[in-house]
Amino acid sequence: MCLVPVLAVAHAQNAGKVTYEEKNKLEIKLDDANAKLLEGLPKEHISQKELYFTADASLYQGNKSKKTSANTDTESEGGPRMIINMNEPDDKVFCDLKNNKRLEQRDFLSRIFLIESDLSQMQWKLTGNQKMILNYPCQEAILQDTSKKVTAWFTPAIPVSTGPNGYSNLPGLVLSADIDNGKRIINATSIDLKEIDKSILVKPTEGKKVTKEAFNKIVDEKRKEMQQENGGNGDVIIKIKH
């Protein structure tokens, strides 16, 4: 679909800081015998993230001054116990916009991984839909050829090809993203266009280097293992990861 023109702001600034709010839905399914465990449990987890960017690079990470953690422990009479741990991992996503590379630092079950991928592999379909976000004209795009459905809104008024969680390869900064029909929603809450101290934009170095495919395989295998260990009879422990 062709791109519908949107007027950009004159003298656009190519550096700054964007604050985002991330909402992750908590979808927990139990059999009828343990349904009472769900009473009073949170339905979503909200966290604050920051994106620092220049024309050459960006870094997306948690807002350490507003880092949240929460633990919920519920137990049914004579039955299993459910423990929900929502301590936020120190995940980071660095984008090398010059060389079209993305480097992710991910904490999975107390193991740190470094995952490198190619930004140019992100292919988007422009829908032509438009709306305003924080007084910036934005256009809608849908990520193609991926296991997750990602809908993003980007603004050509800030012509830097990056965004939250490393969503890139669009002709403008991503201000909003919807992953898997609302399971995860990321919205910009403030934009501060200014020169950025380049010492902030440091590539993460901690963790075992793996490919994206290898990391996804590790996650899938560990989740299956945990499901088999619980077997539906023991305690249920859920850790919220982003």
What does this protein look like?
With 242 residues, this protein is mostly beta strands. The chain has a single domain (16-239), classed as outer membrane lipoprotein receptor (LolB), chain A (Clam). 8% of the residues lie in helices and 44% in strands. The strands form two sheets. A twelve-stranded mixed β-sheet has the order 9-10-11-12-13-1-2-3-6-7-8-14, covered by helices on one side. A three-stranded mixed β-sheet has the order 4-5-15, with no helix packed on it. A hairpin with a 4-residue loop joins strand 12 and strand 13.
Write the layout of secondary structure elements.
Layout: E1 16-25, E2 44-53, E3 57-62, E4 71-75, E5 81-85, E6 92-96, E7 101-108, E8 111-118, E9 124-133, E10 136-143, E11 150-155, E12 173-179, E13 184-193, E14 208-211, H1 212-230, E15 236-239
Parallel strand pairs: 5-15, 8-14
Antiparallel strand pairs: 1-2, 1-13, 2-3, 3-6, 4-5, 6-7, 7-8, 9-10, 10-11, 11-12, 12-13
